[in-house]
Amino acid sequence: MTAAVVALAAAISAVMLSINWDGAEDSTAAPKIDDLLNIAIVLSSIIFAIVVVALAYALYAFRAKPGDESDGEPIHGNTRLEITWTLIPTIIVLFSGGWSWKVLNEIEERTGHEMTVDVFSQQYAWSFGYPGKEYAYSEGVLHVPVNRQIVFKMHSQDVIHSFWVPQWRIKKDNVPGITTTAVVTPTKTGTFQLICTELCGFGHATMRAKVVVQSQSAFDKWVEGLKEKVPTPLMVSVKQDTETNPEPLERAEAE
Amino acid sequence: MVAAFQRPGWYRAALGAVIAAALGFGLVVVLREISGLSAFQSEQTGYPQVIVPLIMAPFGFLLGIGCFDYWLRWAFGLPTIPEDHSSHGAHSWKDYFKVNTDHKVIGIQYICTTFVFFFIGGLAAMLIRAELAQPGTQIVGAGTFNSLFSVHAALMIFLFVIPVFAGIANYVLPLMIGAPDMAFPRLNALSFWMLPIAGLLFLGSFLAPGGAFDAGWTGYAPLSTGAPLGQSFFNLGVQFAGASSIATALNFLVTIITMRAPGMTFWRMPLLVWANLSTSLLVVAATPFIAGAQFMVFFDRILHTNFFQFGAGGDVISYQHIFWFYSHPAVYIMILPGFGIISEVISTHARKPIFGYRLMALALIGIIVLSYSVWAHHMFVAGMFSWLRVPMMLTTLLIAVPTGIKIFSWLGTLYFGKIHTKSTAMLFALAFIVTFTIGGISGVMLGMVPFDIHVSDTYFIVAHIHFVLFGGSVFTIFAGIYHWFPKMTGRMYDEKLGRVHFWGTLIGTWGTFIPMHWIGMDGMPRRVADYAAQFGNWNLLISCFAFMLGAVQLVFLYNMIVSWRFGPKAEANPWRANSIEWLVSSPPPIYNFDEIPRVVGGPYEFGIPGAQHAIMAGEGAEVPTGEPSVVGT
């Protein structure tokens, strides 16, 4: 039976690991999250294989013969076995939790030379503000430089929207009244799609924006070419929305 | 004719509803006229001339149908009429349409009503899948689509999964613990009659200007606080479903704690009783939170309070905290009674005592305690205080441990047993173990914050909730319905049709919900009427399996209706089970027992010669001579 479990777990893992589930990995966070997924896949395959093999064997070996009306053996439990299947899953989930915590810290770590971009969302459009004394503004298209950490400060004007670029593996809700933050370091130039993932009304499915990742020089040139400044109502939300997520340390220092 | 309107019943209920609605309507119009406002107001979050009658009509209905007759007579010092609830028990099918205080009648009323809503909710699901079969919009527009999935989820959760378990337990639980009825039979009847009101409010919202509520069953503010009138129907419907749920849970708690037969110690209770004890503890403490959250949205809408109005000092994220503080425990409300059913079915059909009975009961308690500390895992990307994510992740992952204990113990129960698979109930129970394991695994994956950031609000979530709610809860419901069908109706169902239903449901469930995991991870968000063309083929496949899954439920419906009417008569104990409900006739007599049984051993004493769980009246006073039980002595 052990052999069957190992074989099945190995087979499932092999198949599952060979598939690229999450799509292209185009940020520094993406490979780390996908590695975490792979760890989860291997652990899950083992658990799943144990359950399936145990069930299949029970059905094979302990099926009642036709006409057999007798009862099974009166076994009420086995303390050692019960402790085992309490402790081992505990260890597995705590390991997964620890690894997740490590990945979470890594993908949100600041590099020290990040660039802040403001994200504005409203039913059903995205717009963006770029730093500099002009506070340049673009509608429906987001440009960012490659290989530089971007800190997105997100502001919603009406209901909750959510900012998701699948290839970056980063998602964050834009919440009216507060400023939320996400960090991402894109690693590949190209064009991507920004998808709204929080139900925001009848236009939710089509609330998309184009994302262009380009070299720093191309990006600088593009920003310089922007004519508009961030409109006043949006600037109000930048200034007035409260920052809900100060890190614990910053919060302590602020007090 | 006048007499018909004086007796409790449908005539008086219709009259009561109409009078109450007219009173409400008149009150609004008069008060607005006095205040110098126009009689009608049609701001989309307002409509007081609709809202007030909507609040009052259900009470008129409940008064009219007779839920309050006994209490009101008693309160006003009038002679009470003990038989005012169409007497105990049902003598014809018509008695199921009256207020009745018999737990067995109420159980059947619950189950039939909830299955009506199951099929209506299922129809909504079919429309959703028809729209999603191809990219672009073909059948319904984006607004209607949002209404459809919102109503689908609201019906399935509040009108099917939660109350159908209350219905099954209503029927079975008093019998199992050797009680003649529930502790508060009139409250029990009131609980039931509040339920269809909630369902009618949800469905009635389709008639409201602006269409049915469309902010999802989660109704996140501020989308919900600014939504059209239909959202108020949802806010009110949840109050009735919630009140029904809380009253029933109180009833179960008091019944289980005070009305167990002599000798039925806590450690001799069947696990279904343990499961409903745990569930009821969750319901009484958690459900007020969703009632509160919906009231706050409702007040923001109609009274212009500022709970979630971000421009006026309200806090948007607090809605999610309050909502999920109920709605995460609610997922355990929707699965723990199912765990109880699976324990009964597996032990009986494997002819084996439950493996690790005490740890199984303790695991239930472990789950309810932990379930109060995991709610914010729904909010990893919501923009809440970021540090909170880590402790919530750890508790979320740890809750897999007691759930795993249950899975392994069911497997342990099968070993060295004599497994009979001729019953459809057992097939569903065995399939549940595998299907629920998959749902549990994807749940653990979602608990891991970095992965959750990627798949939150995608089809991965849709896949996960349907694996645990359909592959989990609904499988246990089918197992329970098949298992106790002979007891409830006194007739056997058709096992051949049962098998068709089982295999169709199993294949349909896997075919529909497995591919959703992938398209979610690959970039398809949830709750969208339209999607990128790259997901077209997968969605077509999913829709085909979904239609098959929907169609095969009609086999179940046919089997139940025809077998109830024409099936062969059932014996008292067709599965040769041990617990007390099988020791009385099928269906059981009014008041269940001539004499309260005495419990002398554990509930799962299979394979122990001479062991008994309970001694029924007329069996004499002899004490069984078998080996002493390991459990419950």
Structure description:
- The complex is a heterodimer of chains A (255) and B (633).
- Chain A has 255 residues and is α/β, with parallel strands linked by helices.
- Chain A folds into two domains: 84 residues, no CATH class; 129 residues, Immunoglobulin-like (Sandwich), CATH 2.60.40.
- Chain A is built from six helices and eleven strands.
- In chain A, the strands form two sheets. Chain A has a six-stranded mixed β-sheet, covered by helices on one side. A five-stranded mixed β-sheet of chain A has the order 4-10-9-6-7, with helices on one face.
- In chain A, helix 1 packs antiparallel against helix 2.
- The termini of chain A are far apart.
- By secondary structure, chain B is mostly helical.
- Chain B has four domains: 74 residues, no CATH class; 235 residues, Cytochrome c oxidase-like, subunit I domain (Cytochrome C Oxidase, Chain A); 224 residues, Cytochrome c oxidase-like, subunit I domain (Cytochrome C Oxidase, Chain A, Up-down Bundle); 62 residues, no CATH class.
- Chain B is built from 19 helices and two strands.
- In chain B, strands 1-2 form a two-stranded antiparallel ribbon.
- In chain B, helix 9 runs parallel beside helix 12.
- Chain B is globular and about 80 Å long.
- The N and C termini of chain B lie far apart (61 Å).
- In chain B, 61% of the residues are buried.
- The C terminus of chain B is likely disordered.
- At the A-B interface, helix 2, helix 3 and strand 7 of A face helix 6, helix 12, helix 13, helix 14 and helix 15 of B.
Structure characteristics:
heterodimer, A: 255 residues, alpha/beta, Immunoglobulin-like, 2 domains, 6-stranded mixed sheet, 5-stranded mixed sheet, 6 helices, 11 strands, 42% helix, elongated, disordered C terminus, B: 633 residues, mainly alpha, Cytochrome C Oxidase, Chain A, 4 domains, two-stranded antiparallel sheet, 19 helices, 2 strands, globular
